[in-house]
Specification:
heterodimer; A: about 200 residues; mainly alpha; B: about 190 residues; alpha+beta; TATA-Binding Protein; 2 domains; ten-stranded antiparallel beta sheet; 4 helices; about 30% strand; elongated; DNA-binding; transcription regulation (chain B); DNA-binding (chain B); repeat (chain B); transcription (chain B); TBP_dom_sf (chain B)
Chain lengths: ~200, ~190
DNA sequence: GCTTTAAAAAGTAAGCT
DNA sequence: AGCTTACTTTGTAAAGC
């Protein structure tokens, strides 16, 4: 009995240490990504839910913690792309994506796809463009999404192309390379999305 | 209007069978021309047929998996070739080994573009998986028939997980009627 | 869970000329 | 700027780690 009792404490302590580690990792990554405290709190809540629903077994704590942070950002409307969270995590993009999908399904998070517009404020401030460019980019996203161009496309690439197009239209040109860098997509992707969006706006 | 069912095309059939005889894969690999066998990497020996095109995975137990065929007839024809090749190596092969189709992959075309965002919400976020950042297709799991459909913005789709060709037809019918009910087609 | 095989869908990426 | 190759997703059996 004494042994069982010790084992329980050992297990409880181990579980407590694991939870503390996960939460500190969420904090570390959240700081590195520069997301507000509300996102860390949402991510922590999701992690505790995953824990109580026994979704961690068979998965790395770091992977689950990163996935919860990714989900938290999206739930708070200030998404970070998988590329971005992967940069501050110790696990790979593929594992994060797979773990995120598993947790979202099991916890019925019912996440809507990230809206490209949600990336515009951050990308634009990183590029130091005017409010005018920002508004124009949002206009381009709305119009081209309405015309059905968004289906299947990555939200970051779509946002990046709209910002690039808007910078040209507002005479505040940013190069494809500059936009590609802040959005973490290739110039080829920007070029492809940009062409379609310009056509959709009737600006070609 | 083209009935989406008429655009269905079987792209890949996976089936399993067995010759009812244990095999020494090392010697089979030596005698069978074009065989790929690397037990360190995978326990099965890979043998490819040319006509019809397919890849057979042959195991020590004598069990065989055939993939890549474009129809159930092709699966049988491919495996007949594999059986004959083994017989040429003086290996006993049962008369007519039972061949079980395990999975059929099909493609089809709904003929119109799809708004995947609207479909994700319409079909219910709890029933679908749509992560355009990770993959451009929307994943839709059906209960009846029990298959998985991947829907794309172009209106093209992939149906997998079925065990008979009719599964794909039933799936396409259900998908079309659900999208029509939601007013998300045309 | 992984390893291997096949095939489609469409988006993204990387390497080379 | 292309073109080619390759990776992402889905499902499935096989034997073994």
């Amino acid at each position: 009995r004494l042994r069982k009792w010790q084992e329980r404490i050992r297990t409880k302590d181990a579980g407590e240490r694991n939870l503390q580690f996960a939460l500190s990792e969420i904090d570390r990554m959240a700081s590195a990504l520069g997301v507000p405290r509300s996102v860390r709190e949402v991510a922590s809540v999701i992690y505790r839910q995953a824990l109580s629903n026994d979704l961690i077994r068979g998965r790395s704590i770091e992977g689950v913690a990163t996935s919860c942070l990714y989900a938290g950002c999206r739930q708070e409307g200030i998404p970070r792309s998988l590329e971005e969270v992967t940069e501050v995590s110790r696990v790979g993009k593929k594992e994060i994506g797979r773990t995120y999908r598993y947790i979202a399904k099991e916890l019925s998070l019912e996440m809507k796809p990230a809206d490209p517009k949600e990336y515009v404020p951050r990308f634009c401030s990183d590029l130091e463009v005017s409010e005018e460019v920002k508004m124009k980019a949002i206009e381009i996203i709305d119009e081209s999404a309405e015309q059905g161009l968004l289906s299947g496309k990555s939200p970051t690439g779509f946002a990046a192309a709209a910002i690039y197009a808007a910078s040209l239209l507002c005479n505040e040109k940013k190069t494809q390379r500059e936009v590609a860098e802040v959005a973490q997509v290739t110039e080829v992707t920007i070029r492809n999305r940009y062409q379609e969006q310009i056509e959709a706006m009737g600006l070609n | 209007m083209t009935d989406p069912k008429d655009t269905i095309n079987i792209e890949n059939v996976v089936a399993s069978t067995g010759i009812g005889q244990e095999l020494d894969l090392q010697s089979v690999a030596m005698d069978l021309e074009g065989a790929d066998y690397d037990p360190e990497q995978f326990p099965g020996l890979v043998y490819r047929t040319q006509n019809p095109k397919s890849a057979a995975l042959i195991f020590r137990s004598g069990k065989i998996v055939c993939t890549g065929a474009k129809s159930t007839d092709d699966v049988h024809e491919s495996l007949r070739i594999v059986f004959d090749k083994l017989r040429e190596l003086q290996i006993q092969v049962n008369e007519d080994p039972e061949i079980v189709v395990q999975n059929i992959v099909t493609s089809a075309d709904l003929g119109r573009n799809l708004n995947l965002n609207a479909i994700a919400i319409g079909l219910g976020l709890e029933n679908i998986e749509y992560e355009p950042e990770q993959f451009p297709g929307l994943v839709y799991r059906l209960d009846e028939p029990e298959v998985v459909a991947l829907l794309f913005g172009s209106g093209k789709l992939v149906i997998t997980g079925g065990k008979k060709p009719e599964d794909a037809e039933h799936a396409v019918d259900k998908i079309v009627s659900r999208l029509e009910d939601l007013g998300l087609l045309e």
